[in-house]
Design a protein that fits this description.
Number of helices: 6
Shape: rod-shaped
Number of domains: 1
Strand content: under 5%
Largest sheet: none
Number of strands: 0
Length: 264
């Protein structure tokens, strides 16, 4: 009886241990299942966020391209309209330059008269290219900001800086379009013809008057261009730099927080 009792006790202990093992295995299985489920959900959430980010990125790129094309179209239209309005003054300047008897000086004056609008076009086209470049930089900043957002980073300051930069770029584009619509045609109204241009004295006064008119036109052109460069264009550049700076202040902005997700 003692042996049978001992066997019974041992059997009971073995049963308890077996039940405990089974319970532990079941609990561990449920825990693994729960962990797996959380992992699947986290991965699905990340994929969904990435898809939303890609869609938003494409929308931003499309809007930027539309803005660029619209600005360029406005600029060309403004140039043509201004050119038409100033045709009379151009004809008057042409006639006045024809009064210069020295053909070499006359040709030089005519070349100079045509260079001012060409210079304005060259500068405004360059400004537009710069703004396109700022747009491209801002798009990259937006992409990195979106990545940071999907990784749970605080992007509030960067988003505000991006919005400010977009506004600054739009303002600069409008200013460049306005500058492109400005024409720089020689004003000969101040070049009097009180002395006959057929005389040497009259020719001297004509050339002196035209030289002064050219100098005033040159001064006006570069005053406007420098004001645009140091004003709206500089503001746009600074705003993009600020957006980049706020992005860099986000801790580990490009890190993928998979470890953090696994801990949830």
């Amino acid at each position: 009886m003692g042996l049978l009792k001992t066997i019974g006790v041992v059997g009971g202990i073995a049963g308890i241990l077996l039940s405990a093992s089974v319970a532990f295995a079941e609990n561990n299985g449920r825990a693994n299942t729960a962990t797996t489920t959380r992992g699947v959900r986290a991965e699905a959430a990340r994929e969904e966020a990435k898809e939303r980010m890609e869609n938003a990125r494409e929308e931003i790129k499309t809007r930027m391209e539309e803005k660029r094309e619209e600005a360029k179209a406005r600029m060309e239209t403004a140039r043509e309209e201004t050119k038409t309005r100033m045709e009379t003054r151009r004809e008057e300047a042409e006639h006045r330059l024809n009064d210069i008897r020295d053909k070499a000086k006359q040709q030089l004056a005519k070349r100079l008269a045509g260079q001012f609008d060409a210079l304005n076009k060259k500068w405004t086209d360059h400004f537009i290219q710069q703004l396109d470049h700022y747009d491209a930089i801002l798009l990259k900043i937006q992409e990195r900001t979106d990545i940071a957002a999907t990784n749970g980073k605080d992007i509030a300051s960067t988003s505000l800086a991006i919005a400010s930069a977009n506004t600054a770029i739009d303002d600069a584009r409008a200013a460049v379009v306005a500058q492109a619509a400005t024409t720089y045609t020689l004003d000969t109204s101040s070049v009097t013809a009180t002395v006959a241009t057929t005389t040497n004295s009259g020719q001297d006064k004509l050339v002196q008057g035209l030289r002064k008119a050219f100098q005033e036109l040159h001064k006006a052109l570069f005053k406007d261009l420098m004001a645009l460069r140091d004003g709206a264009m500089k503001d746009a550049r600074s705003a993009v730099q600020d957006a980049l700076q706020t992005l860099r202040q986000i801790p580990k902005v490009d890190d993928d927080d998979d470890d953090d997700s696994a801990d949830d």
